[in-house]
Amino acid sequence: MRSGASELTDEALVAGMAVGDDACTVAFVRRFQRRVFGLAFAMIGDREAAEEVAQEAFWRAWRHAGAFDRRRGAVSTWLLAITRNVAIDSLRVRRPVPAPPADVAWAEIADPGAPLDERASAEDGRRRLMAVLNEVPESQARAVVLAVVYGFSAQEVSDAEGVPLGTAKARIRRGLIKLRALSAAQEGPWRQEDLSQ
Amino acid sequence: MTPGSGTPGSGAGMPGACPGNEERLIDLVVGHLAGKEREAVLAHLERCRQCSVRVAGLSASVDDLLALAPEVEPPAGFEARVFARLRANGTSPARPSGRAGARPGAPRLRGLSGAGRRADRQAVRQAARRRWDHRVLGAAAALVLVMGAAVGGGFALGRSSGEHVAAASVMTGRLMDGAVAVGKVMVYPGRTTWLFMYLDQGRWSGSLRCEVVARDGYVMKVGDFWAGAGSAGGALAWGAKVPLPASQVREAMVVGPSGKVMAVAQLA
Predict the structure, then answer these.
(1) pLDDT band of B119, cuts 50, 70, 90
(2) Which of A157, A159, B29, B77 is deepest in the core (most CB within 10 A)?
């Protein structure tokens, strides 16, 4: 096994996986396992089921590594999107018993005190994300994050937030629309396609 | 919505979607559609470029949000089980095939040792015992990440996948209801002071208030939150900004609707 794969970039690891490089596959799993399992666990709330989701996500990533297109986004984004899709499929099967509501209740996400220019100029992807989230009304941002990151159904968002179901749905929808518009405004033209119609 | 109509609208509603379709497209990308409803929307997307492009944009925003998910250490033996699965499924006839983007030949993993079944069963049992702790820690890590990003420098945020979120100079205190520990409070310094707490789920339900006591004895409300009945063994996580420098916060309290102090945390 070739040494030094752990020092390769994310994109190089995926390229290595695509051509069957075992060292790249090992390094890829080691590098991303905490994030993949973390997202699966956040959405599923059960370690055994989350492990199944995480394993399936890695298998799909490995299987489709050759289809990864770096122009469409970062490796981590691609891998986490795969993980989320697997988790959603799992939740569809498992959801006859809803997840406990209010496991996560976020009172504050936005920090309107931070200047927009300062936030927007930050290089870190998470900071840019927060800069965008800060512009979304807090209740909507919370609803979107609970639905997207924690896999809450609209009913579970309703329960967790103590608002009617219709309000929860409206917050999710309005929040995501606002988030999309703000993100598109900050991104390059290749991701502004939905505003250029 | 008229899924399946295949008639692109004028875009007079929300930008990029057929008129009236926006809500269903959002439900789809968030994962809230299932069954025939989902199939109908997917069928519509096959024929409507306008809505397909809109879904791609919305999906990009959803994907971006996934960076907020907490990092959690997987169960013992996870890595070995992944490699074992890659080896097994790489040649299994049951593997999915013909998916969009799949290349003809999947790579084959060689020379990696997998965990034995006994070790797997032991890991699963250990995982079940740790489930509650990790659920709490997962929620905590996510909120810390959000708060860290929001305060713009209060935390060392990872720039690559291998790095972790780290908090600096966090003040902590066990939340006590008399002699019983019912949760934990953490106060994070920075340009904005943030307080985060978790509570045992189901201990109280209804509207609760968080207050802090400053070092000069002044009591200040931090915010209200809702505690659902929840299930035994769960936890409720909550966070909010504190209008005080972290160093000035002496105690944090959970207060019930009647004004009764339910639990107190001494911070150090």
Answers:
(1) very low
(2) A157
**B-chain residues within 8 Å CB-CB of A10?**
160-161
- Measured over the CA atoms of residue A70, residue A76, residue A81 and residue A82, the dihedral's sign is positive
Tokens of A81: 């999107």
Q: A197, B79: Cβ pair inside 8 Å?
A: no
Task: Tell me how far apart the alpha carbons of residues A12 and A17 are, in angstroms, rounded to a whole number.
Answer: 9
Burial class (CB in 10 A: 0-12, 13-18, 19+), B119: middle
Biggest alpha carbon distance in chain A?
A: 57
Residue B242 · residue B222 · CB < 8 Å: yes
Q: Is the minimum CB–CB distance between A193 and chain B shorter than 8 Å?
A: yes
- Mean pLDDT over B132-154 rounds to 37
CA atoms within 13 A on the CB side of B254: 32
What's the pLDDT tens digit per position in B47-96? 998 999 899 889 988 988 888 777 788 988 999 999 888 887 664 323 33
Q: How far apart are the first and last CA of chain B?
A: 56
pLDDT tens, B216-266? Answer: 899 999 888 777 655 444 556 677 778 888 889 999 999 988 889 999 999
pTM of the model: 0.56
| Pairing outcome for strands B171-177 and B166-167 | unpaired
Q: Could you give the 3-state DSSP secondary structure of residue A69? A: coil
Q: Could you give the CA distance from residue A48 to residue B131 in angstroms, rounded to a whole number? A: 9
Residue A15 forms contact with B (CB below 8 Å) = no
| AA identity, residue B242 | V
Please report the pLDDT score of residue A25 as a whole number: 92
Q: How far apart are CA A76 and CA A64, in angstroms?
A: 14
DSSP B217: S
Contacts of B135 (CB under 8 A, 6+ apart): A41, A45, A103, B234, B235
The Cα B5–Cα B12 span in angstroms is 17
3-state secondary structure of B70: coil
Per-residue pLDDT, B246: 85
